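Morning, I've got a small favour to ask if you have a moment. The fold is given in discrete form, as structure tokens running alongside the sequence. I'd be grateful if you could look everything over and explain what you see. No rush at all, and the record is pasted right below.
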Amino acid sequence: MNRETRQIIFNQLEILKLLDPEQADRYGKQQQIVDRGFSHFYEEVLTVDKHEASSSMQQEVIDILNMFRALNRAIDDGWVPSDKDDARFQGFDANNDDHYSFAHFLLDVQRRFDESAPNKNSHSSFSIEKYRSMLREWAKVGNKFKLTEEEAEAIIKA
């Protein structure tokens, strides 16, 4: 962590000491860690997740949810899918797939993509591969949000 970042965190901890006097001792100890650059103990100060979600994963989740939005519109327009489960968003595997957390954020926190909410735990590590096959098929269609019955069917069969 560079010196400027450490200074910012040190100052934030100083503000926290003033706002929460009951925790002032704890914040003071965290200031010492940051001030002296004791990186071994940064985890005691930094509470944000070490892992940063990749932009490509986030875009993939958005694409998947948009694809299911398009399939939902096709259903609303009269398409009767051969497999109703394949035509509906089934979620991501919460135990093995980073997509789950971002989908949860979009669906349950931001309340976007209502037709796919709430976020679901598919309990299957194969769901992402199925969605990717479906996305490849969806990429072939002209009007992504005005699917023909044949296009919608080809997507769920992918």
Remarks:
- The chain is about 55% helix and 0% strand.
- The longest helix spans residues 55-76.
- The helical segments are 3-19, 24-36, 42-45, 55-76, 99-109, 127-138, 149-157.
